């Protein structure tokens, strides 16, 4: 297995070099040169595997034997050894047609832990094996930052800087990042929105001299390993629900940056027989508009009750577009150039028909989000966070009477109590979250100014 850039101007790389590159040096995103296909017989064999065993089976297709199995197994066991349930991502049956895959049992109570606990171990492993410094740089709309920091805090040879939009993440998300006082962690709170933070990150990774001089590495979903690690729980969910019914299975995924849903697309391309992949967004509904009309055009930014999806420029969209245009790097590059110069791209005809075969999508309004939380608490005594509520609303919109729906619960509701309290629901915070409110914060507030952010990084990386 080799890895190539969506834009076609990077020599094929191995697995570890792909991990270290993050954003491709030509500005594209790294993808496998070919997607391995898993047979139906193999899927059946995998049905009884634990989460950790399944992880190792899937990664074996992608690592090129660059990491000895015993080393990979140790990383996987360490990564998931601190989750609050042995299943890692347990499945909760809500009713006859709906299952919820709970992805919030990691240390920061969000789905990002599932990939980032492993990525922290992987970066630490590479740093020790190659005796190289690793400086992780990322932007977050809320959950990635806390999970990434938790994954690498205190690790020798690694420093991490996370940019988050000032005042536009939930209080718990902010505290999970900024109460960390480790010397290898820098939190920059940026005046602006997530897209502003993400643009600075992409610009810095595109500056190859700066990237090389400061040993920059990516932990956002621009890094293919994030995508691959998330693919595991699609297989896990499908294989554990499929045995209970002969109905077709749909998966509904809260999605802002297109990374989580692209992991599902990859799983489906590998042979996992998912029926519908349903994209749930909020009022920042660029992905819904693309699926329904073929137009991909960032609109005006809206703050919502589901802030982790308050995104207008979805980084991983480029990976999907690459496959949509038949893995033609020239076509892909032309589309991305047009997006840069004209502010939008449009797909039509057969391409749009293919999009609509690949995905359904719903942009959930704030009121509908809160109503869904209230409904499921009242009818099933099951409390949803606002992002999961968007996923449930999308499931309700697209799940057929003869189909089973799996919705991903991407965060614990305690992380978004600002929304929960609006519908007069009082929840008990887990002890780990409750303790955050008594801890001092450590963050630097900066303007949305690339030069100022560079100065902060240069001082941190000394």
From TrEMBL:
Pathway(s) this gene product operates in, as recorded in its UniProt entry: Amino-acid biosynthesis; L-threonine biosynthesis; L-threonine from L-aspartate: step 5/5
Domain of life: Bacteria
Residues annotated as domain Threonine synthase N-terminal: 2-80
Catalytic activity: O-phospho-L-homoserine + H2O = L-threonine + phosphate
InterPro entries, A to Z: Ser/Thr_deHydtase_PyrdxlP-BS, Thr_synth_N, Thr_synth_N_sf, Thr_synthase-like, Threonine_Synthase, TrpB-like_PALP, TrpB-like_PALP_sf
GO function terms (MF aspect): threonine synthase activity
Keywords: Amino-acid biosynthesis, Lyase, Pyridoxal phosphate, Threonine biosynthesis
Keyword Amino-acid biosynthesis tagged: yes
Documented EC number(s): 4.2.3.1
Domain Tryptophan synthase beta chain-like PALP: 92-348
Cofactor(s), names only, from the UniProt record: pyridoxal 5'-phosphate
N-terminal signal peptide: none
Gene3D superfamilies associated with the record: 3.40.50.1100, Threonine synthase, N-terminal domain
Record-stated family: Belongs to the threonine synthase family.
PANTHER family for the chain: THREONINE SYNTHASE FAMILY MEMBER, THREONINE SYNTHASE-LIKE 2
Name by which UniProt lists this protein: Threonine synthase
Gene source species: Paenibacillus pseudetheri
Gene responsible for this protein: thrC
């Amino acid at each position: 297995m080799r890895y190539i850039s969506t834009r076609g101007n990077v020599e094929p790389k191995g697995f570890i070099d792909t991990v270290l590159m993050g954003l491709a040096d030509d500005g594209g995103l790294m993808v496998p040169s070919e997607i391995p296909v898993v047979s139906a017989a193999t899927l059946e064999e995998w049905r009884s595997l634990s989460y950790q065993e399944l992880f190792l089976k899937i990664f074996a297709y992608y690592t090129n034997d660059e990491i000895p199995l015993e080393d990979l197994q140790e990383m996987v066991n360490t990564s998931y050894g601190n989750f609050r349930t042995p299943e890692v991502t347990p499945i909760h049956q809500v009713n006859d047609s709906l299952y919820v895959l709970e992805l919030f049992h990691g240390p920061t109570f969000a789905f990002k832990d599932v990939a980032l606990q492993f990525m922290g171990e992987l970066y630490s492993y590479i740093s020790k094996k190659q005796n190289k410094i690793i400086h992780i740089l990322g932007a977050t709309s809320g959950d990635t930052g806390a999970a990434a920091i938790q994954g690498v805090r205190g690790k020798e040879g690694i420093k991490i800087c996370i940019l988050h939009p000032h005042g536009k993440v939930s209080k718990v998300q902010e505290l999970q990042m900024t109460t960390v006082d480790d010397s290898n962690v820098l939190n920059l709170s940026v005046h602006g929105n997530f897209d502003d933070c993400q643009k600075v990150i992409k610009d810095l990774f595109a500056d190859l001299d700066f990237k090389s001089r400061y040993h920059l590495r990516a932990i956002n979903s621009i890094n293919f390993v994030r995508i691959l690690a998330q693919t595991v729980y699609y297989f896990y969910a499908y294989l554990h629900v499929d045995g209970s019914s002969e109905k077709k299975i749909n998966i509904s995924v809260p999605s802002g940056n297109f990374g989580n849903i692209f992991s599902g697309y990859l799983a489906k391309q590998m042979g996992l027989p998912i029926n519908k992949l349903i994209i749930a967004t909020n009022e920042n509904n660029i992905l819904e508009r693309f699926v329904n009309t073929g137009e991909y055009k960032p609109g005006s930014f809206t703050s919502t009750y589901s802030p982790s999806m308050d995104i207008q420029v979805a980084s991983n969209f480029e990976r999907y577009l690459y496959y949509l245009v038949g893995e033609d790097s020239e076509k892909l590059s032309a589309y991305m150039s047009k997006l840069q110069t004209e502010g939008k791209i449009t797909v039509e005809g057969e391409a749009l028909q293919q999009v609509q075969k690949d995905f359904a999508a719903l942009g959930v309004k704030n009121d509908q989000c809160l109503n869904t939380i209230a409904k499921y608490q009242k009818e099933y005594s099951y409390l949803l966070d606002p992002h999961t509520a968007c996923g449930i609303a999308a499931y309700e919109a697209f799940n057929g009477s003869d189909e089973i729906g799996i919705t991903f619960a991407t965060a614990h509701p305690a992380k978004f109590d600002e929304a929960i309290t609006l519908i007069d629901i009082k929840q008990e915070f887990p002890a780990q979250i409750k303790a955050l409110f008594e801890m001092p914060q450590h963050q630097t507030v900066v303007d949305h100014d690339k030069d100022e952010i560079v100065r902060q990084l240069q001082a941190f990386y000394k």
